[in-house]
Amino acid sequence: MSKTEALINEDKQYFAKPGRITYYPLAIESGNGALLTDVDGKTYIDLLASASSQNVGHAPKRVTEAIKAQVDRFIHYTPAYMYHEPLVKLSKKLCEISPGNFEKRVLFGLSGSDANDGIVKLARGYTGRPYIISFTNAYHGSTYGSLSMSAISLNMRKKYAPLVPGFYHIPFPDKYRGLYGNSQPNTVEEYLAPLKDMFETYVPAEEVACIVVETIQGDGGLVEPVDGYFSALQDLCHEHGILIAVDDIQQGLGRTGTWSSVEHYDIEPDLITYGKSLAGGLPMSAIVGREEIMNTLEAPAHLFTTGANPVSCEAALATLQMIEDEQLLKASEEKGAYVRKRMNAWLEKFDCIGDVRGKGLSIGIDVVSDRESKTRDNEAALKICNYAFDHGVIIIAVAGNVLRFQPPLVITYQQLDQALDVLEEALNQLSQGALDHYEISGQGW
Ligand SMILES: Cc1ncc(COP(=O)(O)O)c(C=O)c1O
């Protein structure tokens, strides 16, 4: 039995099912940049970047060194009662890089999920209004607040209701597919209609605290919004005194080629959340927002004993510095453009590629069985993923049929070429019916 098999067998005896969406038997021993090595010594190119939590790559020296240096000074003292410099420095940096030309404050947490819970508290506290609106097909996290905000999987609803009250969902303005199974995208007005209808019939606009937005829906399938939707939404929010919060946990911090994905769109959030890559993969999240909103509640309304852990703060400072020094925002944009050229050729060559979309190195490849109807081909997507895995490339499918192409931003051009060669060969083989032997049942979202 291989080390991988032995480890996975043991894992099954102790680790519980709700904590992992099954894809491949990859048991990681080490990582370096965009490369992973498994416990049996096989090397892979990582196009998933640990769900976009490794934007600066695996184990970059300057981050590991910053972590080690802080561990030797002190591992933690809770910000709930005392002060430390790494927290102050990181808060300052986050205020600087976050969108919005206004005075800001920061709060820290341990996961993207708890940051989104914080948004709910702050928006309700500041506005004195109960309701939160977010989008169908959104993933905002796994705590009760953030999962009530999400609307992507019945497994996040079934058997543990009631959820947090006061959440409503509206359709995301998908630029590729339209509403209710239409193959063509709808107009801005059509996408806004359910919200306007809501305001006229069953949710008083003046009782809505906040609308929570992912600029590009990540786990929902790298879905981009139609042009002009966000500015129209923003107008509506301003008209009714509704706050705008952006969940930038997946799309932020260089993933799309900018510090915040908001920079691509006409929208200015009052609150923004970060997580995942913020501390190079150590547990950390942050809410950054307008001072008057952030200071609206009194402690202990939103604090965590191990929040703003100084080790995580130092890891975050090193991560952000590395993005700056190594020009990883530009790298994300340029490498994204480079791979898109090749992927765009796939659109011509392979009938199963319906769409290639995204920004920077946040790319979705939509695999379809029919280009006209844009019917999702979940099986084909998973077959491609399995072929890639067998040939040393890690990629997963989200929303059933969308290949999630989000490598570490430090990936080299040579590694990109190698990974693209493997994906292209998977598409060739798929089109010849040569991937039917893959057993995909039980895999994926
Ligand atoms: C957009 C978005 N928000 C929130 C989260 C939740 O973050 P975490 O898993 O760190 O709680 C995720 C995780 O996938 C995400 O993609």
TrEMBL record:
Protein name: Aspartate aminotransferase family protein
Pfam families xrefs: Aminotran_3
PROSITE patterns: AA_TRANSFER_CLASS_3
PANTHER family registered for this protein in UniProt: AMINOTRANSFERASE CLASS III (PTHR11986), LEUCINE_METHIONINE RACEMASE (PTHR11986:SF58)
Family: Belongs to the class-III pyridoxal-phosphate-dependent aminotransferase family.
Molecular functions per Gene Ontology: transaminase activity
Alphabetized InterPro entries for the sequence: Aminotrans_3, Aminotrans_3_PPA_site, Class-III_PLP-dep_AT, PyrdxlP-dep_Trfase, PyrdxlP-dep_Trfase_major, PyrdxlP-dep_Trfase_small
Cofactor requirements of the protein: pyridoxal 5'-phosphate
UniProt xrefs under NCBIfam families: PRK08593.1
Naturally occurring in which organism (per UniProt): Staphylococcus marylandisciuri
Keywords: Aminotransferase, Cytoplasm, Pyridoxal phosphate, Transferase
Gene3D superfamilies the UniProt entry points to: Aspartate Aminotransferase, domain 1, Type I PLP-dependent aspartate aminotransferase-like (Major domain)
